[in-house]
Structures are given as C-alpha cells and as structure tokens.
C-alpha cells in the first residue's frame, strides 16, 4: 500500500509567550500544500521487525530512529503487526519549516491502520500522532487550522486559497530550531492572526508576520533576499515558513521563473488546493 504525505506552510507565526517548561506558546495557521513524499509499506515474511529504505532527498539521522519507525512501533505495541519493508521517497526538503517528517509519521499511522484494518478510532489515531510530535495530528486532519499552544491545539479556520498559486524556495541553509527560538522575544500581537486571515490576501503583506523573520534575516540575509525576489516577480504575499529556511510566495497567476533567479535552491511551484 502506498500513500503520499504532504507538506504544510505557516501563514503567519506569532510567538506569544514563553512557558514554564521552556517551550513557547504560539499562534499560526497551518495550511496543507501538495508537495508530497511517497511512502509504501510491503509485508516482509519471515522477519520480525520493520526496515526503512530511503530514496530521494537525503535526510539527517539514523533510519531506525526515524519518526516513521516510531509510528510503526507505537501501533505494534498494541497490535500484532507483521514485519514490513518501508519505502520512503523523500521530496519535501528537510529542515525547511514544512513539517515533512511529521507528515511522514502521521501518514504512516493511517497507512498501517488502513492496510491491516486495525480497530483504531480517529481519536486514538490523533492521540498516537501527538506522541510523535506537536504538529503530527495536523497531518491527519489535513485542512487549514489555527494552531495555538505549542502548535498542538487546532481550531478550524474558514480559509480558501484555491485561486492562488504557490512558489516555494528552500535555500541550502539549515537553521537550528532551538537557535531560532532563542533569538525571538515573545509578545502578544496587536491583532490576532484569526482576524488577519479573514482579510483579503492582498492585505496580508502589511498585517501578517512571522516573528522568526527578523532574527533569521539578520543572520541569513540570503533568505531575506529570496522573500524580496518573490515580491519582485509578483507575489501578493510572501513569508518564511515556520522557523525556516524555506520561503514561499502566493501568486494570482503562476509566474515564469528565470533559471538563475534562485541559484542553488530547491524550487517548487503548485496550485493551492484548499
């Protein structure tokens, strides 16, 4: 059985407070996009465990510690799962603020549930996903939501970007998440993101912000340059996703990109589905 885990972008991201547990409360909108990995599970007779095979983009870490294996182990602890070969073809860039690893894990849970017809309720599946990562349950919902808390509390939002196109650019830069958070001063936004997103997309440029951009751009001016270039070619709104390093632009019409516009970067274009 095969499935296609998709990425997400952040529409706005406000770091509103630091918590006693040293995590941060935030508000952001998770929006799913059709940039997809491919994930397949095949029975492995005569074996007792799962084996992960990765192709496509290279990702950090040991395969046996990947979130996909952790998802398999979570379900195997409660159900008699067979040994499997797992094939992951990685397309979503790693360390880009796109949630690729979380999406792979969430889709793995659902794939195993469906393939082996496990008696797992949607509530249980969401609970298991939350044990893998704060944003993992989002990829089971896979619709635009306002995320609050540490990014683990979801409220549906009335939002559609179906008339827009997306250009996503990921430079060859890795930004440690802990470092990104350490450089941000938490504060309550003047206007809640839930109100800003109700306004026309063309007004977001002066209203919707990503709190990570100020510090990230000062340390990595080439990321700021990507955002500027997206506006230069006609984006109605552009922003860094999450804590970076990818930057996206929303366009009324799909632009033609010169070959030398984003040298050395991963570039993806697609139509918004939601």
UniProtKB/TrEMBL annotation:
Signal peptide: none annotated. One of its GO terms (biological process) is isopentenyl diphosphate biosynthetic process, methylerythritol 4-phosphate pathway. Its EC number is 2.7.1.148. The active site is at 8, 135. One of its GO terms (molecular function) is 4-(cytidine 5'-diphospho)-2-C-methyl-D-erythritol kinase activity. Residues 66-141 form the GHMP kinase N-terminal domain. Pathway: Isoprenoid biosynthesis; isopentenyl diphosphate biosynthesis via DXP pathway; isopentenyl diphosphate from 1-deoxy-D-xylulose 5-phosphate: step 3/6. Keywords: ATP-binding, Isoprene biosynthesis, Kinase, Nucleotide-binding, Transferase. ATP binds at residues 93-103. InterPro entries: GHMP_kinase_C_dom (IPR013750), GHMP_kinase_C_sf (IPR036554), GHMP_kinase_N_dom (IPR006204), IspE (IPR004424), Ribosomal_Su5_D2-typ_SF (IPR020568), Ribsml_uS5_D2-typ_fold_subgr (IPR014721). Residues 195-253 form the GHMP kinase C-terminal domain. It catalyses: 4-CDP-2-C-methyl-D-erythritol + ATP = 4-CDP-2-C-methyl-D-erythritol 2-phosphate + ADP + H(+). It is an enzyme of class 2 (transferase). Gene3D superfamilies: 3.30.230.10, GHMP kinase, C-terminal domain. Belongs to the GHMP kinase family. IspE subfamily. Catalyzes the phosphorylation of the position 2 hydroxy group of 4-diphosphocytidyl-2C-methyl-D-erythritol. This is 4-diphosphocytidyl-2-C-methyl-D-erythritol kinase.
